[in-house]
């Protein structure tokens, strides 16, 4: 069976691109988006001047004293843009095989589309042929199988004479087409990676940025990976890197953490010994570029959202509280991404569940307790306040019900929301990207732009920047009101 063909897309300077849609004057200046005291991202003009992602704002302003800074603490506009781009891309992929990762990454499994078009290429006597995007109509694009669209990740281009190489070349043409449609119809640039697995495609996409795509033939995976630090392989990260280095060298400092060095020192058996069967095998494949984790299409509304962490040993209540705080923060952020549109909850989860595994328990044996999701989650309170309330009033009491004895030793904590239901009176709203230009182009661009909420002085606004819809009573953030009104308009 042939290998899958995967495209990874990552929006360029994503929060900046979203901000540019709201204020097009930002397109021509170096600017950063801040959250608290950190530059969470900056546009490429600012990067050219030396500003870096995740730098402290103070340092960035020392580097570029007249840097424009946009307040990015309200994530709703990024969430909405992300959702709209995902839905747009999903329509172009057979079977909607598109998985979202966070707000700005997508994985597309285009294997079927490539296989189908390979047939036409085989029949064709020419290098140029018509790529069919759909089985039953003629929409598509002209493409050539004679060259890669974009760049390649190593010195070597895919081998045109093999079927696998040809598949990747066709996928590069498809990726080019998808990215150019995203740009012309939605105004967003992206970087793309094309390979036979999610991890290789994602890593390839990061080689050349911005607005470039890169192909990696798995034949060259080991050459591509060999000098990389194991921690930069998605799925290994800092935590497993430290485990591996400690077990190999007894230290994480001043040691050779390259893939090449580690695969010489650690075999599959050792990794299974370190991480257990499932994770050990997975890490082995990640290090060898042979990971086959499939694209898992993201549903409109997930059946559950779950976040967990594992530990060598977790024994005290203060540590449990602090882990639950971290997990709940991540869970709440994921809920906002998956269950909100245009500042409004489009679905509610009804049940929250805490699960744990004792260190002494067999792998896979968990105990759980559930409760109703507290209504504070869907309130307009600040994230920190919501998380604290859920930890104190729901998760810690659930923990005490699960663990009655004062001494315990845990290996895993998981917090999940389940029983997710679409909110009535809410349908998908799309189509706002690139259409709204709220800023008067004649006004001077302020040095510090603070987008609190949009559109100012509406009489119906309440104090928190929300407005209540007169038709269905739904409360929406002010900038989402226009879109929400369109939802009620007849087709
Ligand atoms: P890129 O992909 O290098 O062109 O730049 P971005 O800005 O798209 O960066 P990326 O893809 O790593 O992350 C997407 C967005 O997620 C980014 O615009 C801001 C946000 N983000 C990423 N990492 C962090 C982080 O560590 N903290 C916070 N607060 N936000 C982050
Ligand atoms: Mg990005």
Notes on the structure:
- This protein is of the alpha+beta class and 491 residues long.
- The protein starts with 5 loop residues before the first strand and ends with a helix.
- Helix 5 crosses helix 6 (163-186) and helix 11 packs across helix 12 (277-288).
- Residues 427-466 and 475-479 have low confidence and may be disordered.
- The chain is globular, with a radius of gyration of 24 Å.
- The chain has 15 helices and 20 strands.
- A hairpin with a 6-residue loop joins strand 19 and strand 20 (475-477).
- A six-stranded mixed β-sheet has the order 5-6-1-10-11-9. A four-stranded mixed β-sheet has the order 3-2-4-18, sandwiched between helices.
- It folds into three domains: 1-226 and 446-466, Alpha-Beta Plaits (2-Layer Sandwich), CATH 3.30.70; 227-287, DNA polymerase, domain 1 (Orthogonal Bundle), CATH 1.10.150; 305-445, DNA polymerase, Y-family, little finger domain (Dna Ligase, domain 1), CATH 3.30.1490.100.
- 36% of the residues lie in helices and 21% in strands.
- The structure holds 2'-deoxyguanosine-5'-triphosphate (DGT) and magnesium ion (MG).
Quick structural summary:
The chain has 491 residues and is an alpha+beta fold. It has 15 helices and 20 strands.
